[in-house]
């Protein structure tokens, strides 16, 4: 934890300021420490550079497994690819000019792959928050970036001051909570006046998606209850299925009844297929629905190209 993070934090219980006691440090950062609330006296530990506002990873054990195993698979700096950069631009709509010098919040940061992108595009401060033990990976991947910090907390009980971020994004996260809409509504109060929030959630727009989604939801009822390692082994079926799905109409039929990742990289096919079948919660939405939440929060709503991604701004 960098000392600069303190200006964004507050007690998730009562909203009061927190004070920091440093127990050990490394290169000017707090490795182990304790945050205590000046209002209610509650304490929150800092463990391995990460302030912890939750004791368990609740319903996201699958993501703890996923991101502790695939620590670098989707990291552009590791792959020398621009997949995460392209995804970030497509699903947030944020440009270099908008990010430059800004304070940015990544909600559900996973391995921190988009924190790396936001920092690379000029953000001055990037805070990533996640409920799962993905935070161990995120801090390992982003600690070297000036202004980057990782926090373990729940979207429904965030430890951040109101109006403290210029930009907020959440890519592929909110639909994995018990209520996508309620999770989204936790974000606008954290935006400064004139700030923008962009989210991407799974789509239920097209006829194809509607059928495929109902089929996977049926499978997922069983797969999300399996031991994670067994499901991970089964997800390896995506490696050969990739070739089967190229077989014309038969391939398209297989894609409908047995959805799996079609990433050109075999490792990512396994990762994405596990990611699709393992979550306890996985809702799908339409643009109309998501735009309604933006309006409900008093924000503008702009459709972005990748279904379903929407960006909105708070009045300045
Ligand atoms: C599919 S991953 C996406 C990670 C990252 N945004 C990316 O695209 O690489 C979803 C992430 O949301 C996190 N998540 C789910 N529910 C959450 C909650 N209530 N609070 C914070 N994070 C949550 C999970 O732990 C997981 O890391
Ligand atoms: Zn408190």
The proportion of residues in beta strands is 15-25%
Spatial arrangement of strands, main beta sheet = 7-6-5-8-9-11-10
Hetero groups in this structure are: S-adenosylmethionine, zinc ion
Radius of gyration: 20 Å
Terminal Cα separation, in Å? 31 Å
Averaged pLDDT, please? 97
CATH fold-level name of the largest domain: Rossmann fold
Number of strands: 11
Enumerate how many helices there are, as a single number.
13
- Multimeric status of the protein: single chain
Largest sheet: 7 strands, mixed
Which residue ranges are poorly predicted, with pLDDT under 50 across at least 5 consecutive positions? Answer: none
* Architecture per CATH nomenclature, i.e. the level-2 architecture of the largest domain: 3-Layer(aba) Sandwich
Helical content band: 25-40%
Q: Give, in order, the helices and strands.
A: EEEEHHHHEHEHEEHEHHHHHHEE
Broad shape: globular
Tally of structural domains: 2
Which structural class fits the helix and strand makeup?
alpha/beta
Give a description of the structure.
The longest helix is centred in the C-terminal third of the chain and has 17 residues, at 207-223. The strands form two sheets. Strands 7-6-5-8-9-11-10 form a seven-stranded mixed beta sheet, sandwiched between helices. The chain has a four-stranded antiparallel beta sheet with strand order 1-2-3-4. The chain is built from 13 helices and eleven strands. The chain folds into two domains: 51-59 and 74-202 and 288-313, Rossmann fold (3-Layer(aba) Sandwich); 207-277, no CATH class. The chain is α/β, with parallel strands linked by helices and 316 residues long. The model has no long low-confidence stretch (mean pLDDT 97). It starts with 17 loop residues before the first strand and ends with a strand. The chain is 36% helix and 21% strand. Zinc ion (ZN) is lined by residues 11, 13-14, 16, 37, 39-40, 42. Zinc ion is lined by residues 11, 13-14, 16, 37, 39-40, 42.
